[in-house]
Amino acid sequence: MDLDTVRTFLAAADAGQFQEAAADLAVTQQAVSKRIAALERDLGVRLFTRTPRGAELTIDGQAFLPHARELLRVAERAAASVRAGRRPLRVDMIASRSAASGLMRGFHRAHPEIDLDVVMLIDIGEAVAAIRSGTIDASFRAVAMPGRPLPEDIASVRVLDEPLELLVGPAHALAGARSVTVAQLAGHRIWMPGLLPGTEWAAYYADLVAEFGLTIEATGPNFGSDALLDTIADTPALATFMGGRTRLVWPAGHGLRRVPVTDPTPVYPHSLLWRRDDPHPALATLRAHLAAAAPGHGAAGTWAPDWTIER
């Protein structure tokens, strides 16, 4: 099967328009139409229906979509198997301001000769699939959800326990506290609109709530960190959790406070995941750097779910 036609099909499916797919692929719209038509002839089915809004997948197109993605993953993995030492090391992290970002910046400073590609995937299942296919070499993840163990070909090591801090506005009842115990948080409203069901961080906070009887609200749309900081600054009744290594910048007038949580200190356990037979030579360098540079984990006086990744 012609991989260029498969790649064009995926671009059109993701964009929903042939014109936008053409721009993404740096070809003409006519070339996109010809490639799609050739693929449809090969398969003997219609893959798209033209609509006023653009191009929508037919039922056959929807059925072909996951297999088309797998075709390109296999092709990439085949190419990577013979040129792994020549391409950048691809590492996934959840957000650019996260603790994992800080770890990778430290790695880049220590090893500027190693080319890096940083990607940001949301779902742990997507990250694991990308590792297994060779699309990425490693991913920073925190926990595996109950009932969803890692595949046997995926290895992991816990590299950092990040303490949680309470973020409050200047009028919050705990704004003047130098620290706060977990027990003192009972009854306070902790707002976290970014808790997506099915993600490992949602599972982590669900366990935290169950363990300590906290009230975490995930209601409302997630407009990003700036909107969250604005709301916390202006609402005395609300607080939120932030990782102690999460980089935040807010306007001086906000008067936000980061309050350490103790007795015990909840920690968010970051692990590095990789495929056991990944051939990229820089992967071993990254693992050695993290083992030497990152703090330990499982310290006394801390709490994390007992289903954290480490295998």
Automatic annotation (TrEMBL):
Gene Ontology MF annotations: DNA binding; DNA-binding transcription factor activity
InterPro entries, alphabetized: LysR_HTH_N, LysR_subst-bd, WH-like_DNA-bd_sf, WH_DNA-bd_sf
UniProt xrefs under SUPFAM superfamilies: Periplasmic binding protein-like II, Winged helix' DNA-binding domain
Highest taxon above the source species: Bacteria
PROSITE patterns: HTH_LYSR
One Pfam family named in its UniProt record: LysR_substrate
Domain HTH lysR-type: 1-58
Entry's Gene Ontology cellular component terms: protein-DNA complex
Alphabetical UniProt keywords: DNA-binding, Transcription, Transcription regulation
Family: Belongs to the LysR transcriptional regulatory family.
Protein name per its UniProtKB record: DNA-binding transcriptional regulator, LysR family
